Amino acid sequence: MIRGWGLFLAGALAAAACAKPPPEADSTAQVTSDDSVSRELAQGMQVFRFDTFGNEPFWTDTLHLNEVVEKAVDPTTAIKVGLKVDAGVLPPGLLQQVDLKIPATTVALLKLNAVVGIQAEVDANNRITRLGITCALCHSTVDNSTAPGIGSRKDGWPNRDLNVGAIIALSPALTAEQKAVYNSWGPGKYDPRFNLDGKSTPLVLPPAYGLAAVKNETYTAEGPISYWNAYVAVTQMHGRGNFTDPRLGLDIRNTPDLVGPKLAALRAYQHSLPTPPPPDGSFDRTAADRGHVVFDRACASCHVGTTGTDNNSGTLHAPAETGMDGAYAARTANKAYRTTPLRGLWQHPPYFHDGSASSLAAVVEHYDRVRTLKLTGPERRDLIEYLKSQ
Question: Peptide bond before 256: cis, by omega within 30 degrees of 0?
Answer without folding.
Answer: yes
